[in-house]
């Protein structure tokens, strides 16, 4: 059984890397703020999305340059290092610990969580979503992100913000589920805009997905990573010669197609070794496309530096 399979038109590298990154329940918060303020987020979430409505402030990472956050701007902060949201750099406000348990005004000024809200006056509405993003697959997405990335308002995420603003204003049945999904939507819009900006430096796999040759090969490998792919079969699916695919793939991705495939299979295997504690090495090998567990173990050690059994012991220990 393949690790992941679908129609080729529905599979891409980004979708694979972000699957499992979901907001859930109490990880949503909306703080209504009047200056001065200093909210300190120290819960170590791998990804935290922050956006403001009707005001401005600053995101101040513990080790990094402060980043301005204006009305409808959005930032994504990569954890686990703490960061603060302040009214101005050097604010006189005392820091207030705020995170996934920041639920009522006495615990940091949160005005909305699990359907509870306050209609008091405020200058700034801060919407925050913290995301669990663990494991080998999500790790490859995190590696592509800086400590803090910022996207200006006015892009595709503005429509999501309108829905968020409407949803937090009134208590409704099923509200938390709606908020979680809106935050997920906002995260995807923000990352896509950041990767696509003209002055950006997106990871190689992002640009390669748009290539008519390499993009097809990537989608095929991600649709069914356990399939017995060769350069010839990948090239045939893209409608080009083997040499053309090999050259184009190396130019855009920095490595040959089958080298990329092996690294992706080992990423999947590493996650499965931890998630499926009862699975044998042979089971994992077959799942990622290896009929011979010894060949799989050799490939895993070549890519990861340790054999699968040792990796599992270290990861679960």
TrEMBL record:
Ranges of residues in domain HTH araC/xylS-type: 215-314
Transmembrane feature ranges: none
Annotated keywords: DNA-binding, Transcription, Transcription regulation
Signal sequence, start to end: none
SMART domains linked: HTH_ARAC
Protein name, as recorded: AraC family transcriptional regulator
Species assigned in the record: Prauserella halophila
